[in-house]
Design goal:
With about 475 residues, the chain is an alpha+beta fold. Among the domains are: about 1-160, no CATH class; about 305-484, Heat Shock Protein 90. The protein has 12 helices and 13 strands. The strands form 3 sheets. Strands 11-12-10-9-7-13 form a 6-stranded mixed sheet, covered by helices on one side. It has a 5-stranded antiparallel sheet with strand order 1-2-5-4-3. A hairpin with a 5-residue loop joins strand 1 and strand 2 (about 75-80). Helix 6 crosses helix 8 (about 350-365). The chain is rod-shaped and about 160 Å long. The two termini are about 85 Å apart. It catalyses: ATP + protein L-histidine = ADP + protein N-phospho-L-histidine. GO terms for molecular function: kinase activity. InterPro entries: HATPase_C_sf, HATPase_dom, His_kinase_dom, HisK_dim/P_dom, HisK_dim/P_sf, TCS_sensor_his_kinase. Keywords: Kinase, Membrane, Phosphoprotein, Transferase, Transmembrane, Transmembrane helix. Its EC number is 2.7.13.3.
């Protein structure tokens, strides 16, 4: 298996190498330490026994004294005052080991030197230097012992046994640690392959470690993918329904406009005004529908109406909307009027989007108004920091249960559909969404004694720099602020 041949094999080899190196290093340093300490301990007893037996002979030989035991241990006597008192003395081939002399001169009591035949070519297995008196021919003793081949063989077998034990321990630790880890990784791998599909099988890893966290993360991601998929599917169906409604809304005014134009080419002159009114109504409706579709797409793409700190002069926007829809209102025997203060009233919002929202409200009031009725757009300041835009009509209005749902996408009251089958509630829904993103409040209420009242309220904004510069340059005053 790929995981086994890769991760497990590399982990096993690495643990074996590290275990063997650690065993060899620990054995080497521990053997040296144990041998050195045991040699010092044994030398003290041997020195006492040797001086009791051969002390007179050693002190009576000023030229040097040497003793070799039956086991090959050699003891050589030196004068400590001569060797340690004169630098370089006794460093010839017949003198003590210079390295041991130097270590003793630095304060070490019984320096020991161990020789391993695998690392150096010394004929001795080791040397030890001990001082038994301040001066005299037998005051400094050097012990030299031969290499012990049988002991080295035993040590070699001990090292091999330690290496074998380390390898076995590494294999067992790999089996105890790596194998369960690989099993958990295989479960995670299988779960990741089914992420987001109906056949997803949770790893169900409850261990509180990194892999457990990854398992819980996969479960959370799977749930989020399913949720997003369900949301996207719902949006898809909603979009299909929306496009179907828009196609229906476009079909009716286009057919009506085509019929009005065909009749206008053959109708007598007295029938032309009525046909022109129908054509104007359908043209205005199509223009508003196309603009609303464009704005709905922008809002759907999360276009921010406040991006770039835009400014819109709301009084001029109301004036343009009323002037643009005035002809439609007159053709339907309605009067549409606006009122706004003489001073400029700036709002923080994208101008085109805000004008489309105001146009939707006024157009909606004209569309559902009765002949001879009135539509009013009233803009007024509220204190020094806020504004209120009110759109009033005296049409049939809506029942209380319909007022609460105004602004919902694709919602139209049954009475409104009966009066005008065109439309899907897109215009009012756009107004609500734009107000929400621009930080404005939108409220619907009944207009006593009949009709509908729509109020947009929010904070005022400082005029843009170019408007203040034009005012400072003495530009002509704005147009009159009341239009009917």
């Amino acid at each position: 298996m790929k995981l086994w041949s890769g991760l497990a094999w590399r982990t096993t080899v690495a643990s074996l190498l590290l275990g063997v190196l650690a065993t060899l290093a620990a054995s080497y340093f521990s053997v040296r330490k144990v041998v050195a300490e045991s040699t010092r301990f044994s030398a003290r007893f041997f020195t006492e026994a040797m001086l009791m037996t051969h002390g007179e002979a050693c002190r009576a030989a000023p030229g040097g004294w040497t003793y070799t035991s039956p086991t090959g241990l050699t003891v050589v006597a030196f004068d400590a005052a001569r060797v340690l008192g004169s630098p370089g003395a006794g460093t010839s081939g017949a003198g003590p080991d210079p390295a041991l002399v130097a270590r003793m001169a630095q304060g070490e009591q019984e320096p020991v030197s161990l020789h391993f035949p695998l690392f150096d070519g010394s004929a001795w297995g080791g040397k030890l230097l001990t001082r038994v008196a301040a001066a005299g021919p037998c005051s400094l003793l050097e012990y030299r012992w031969p290499r012990m081949t049988n002991r080295l063989s035993e040590l070699r077998w001990m090292l091999l046994a330690a290496v074998a034990f380390t390898a076995l321990a590494s294999a067992l630790s790999m089996a105890a640690v790596i194998t369960p880890l690989l099993r958990r990784l295989r479960r995670l791998h299988g779960a990741a392959g089914g992420l987001g599909s109906p056949g997803y099988a949770s790893p169900a890893d409850t261990i509180a470690d990194e892999l457990g966290d990854l398992s819980r993360g996969l479960d959370a991601t799977h749930a989020r993918v399913l949720s997003d998929a369900a949301r996207i599917e719902a949006q898809k169906h909603a979009l299909e329904r929306f496009l179907s409604n828009v196609a229906h809304d476009l079909k009716t005014p286009i057919a009506s406009l085509q019929l009005a134009l065909e009749l206008a080419t053959t109708a007598p002159s007295q029938a032309l005004p009525e046909l022109l009114v129908r054509g104007i109504e359908d043209t205005v409706y199509l223009t508003a529908l196309v603009d609303n579709l464009r704005l709905a797409c922008q809002l759907g793409e999360d276009v921010d109406p406040l991006e770039g700190e835009p400014r819109a002069e709301l009084g001029m926007i109301v004036e343009r909307v009323v002037r643009r829809l005035g002809l439609l209102a007159r053709r339907k025997a309605l009067s549409v009027e606006s009122s706004h203060p003489d001073a400029e009233l700036w709002v923080r919002c994208h101008p085109t989007m805000l004008e489309q929202a105001v146009g939707n409200l006024v157009h909606n009031a004209i569309t559902h108004g009765d002949p001879g009725g009135h539509v009013v757009a009233l803009l007024e300041p509220v204190g020094t920091e806020r504004f209120r835009l009110t759109v009033l009509d005296d049409g049939p209005g809506l029942p209380p249960e319909g007022l609460g749902r105004l602004g919902e996408r694709l919602f139209r009251a049954p009475e409104a559909r009966h009066r005008d089958p065109r439309g899907s509630g897109l215009g009012v829904a756009i107004v609500r969404e734009l107000c929400r993103r621009a930080g404005l409040t939108l409220t619907f209420s009944a207009n006593a004694p009949r009709g509908l009242q729509v109020i947009i309220e929010g904070p005022r904004a400082a005029p843009p720099a170019e408007a203040m510069a034009a005012r400072a340059a003495g530009c002509p005053p704005p147009l009159p602020r009341t239009t009917g």
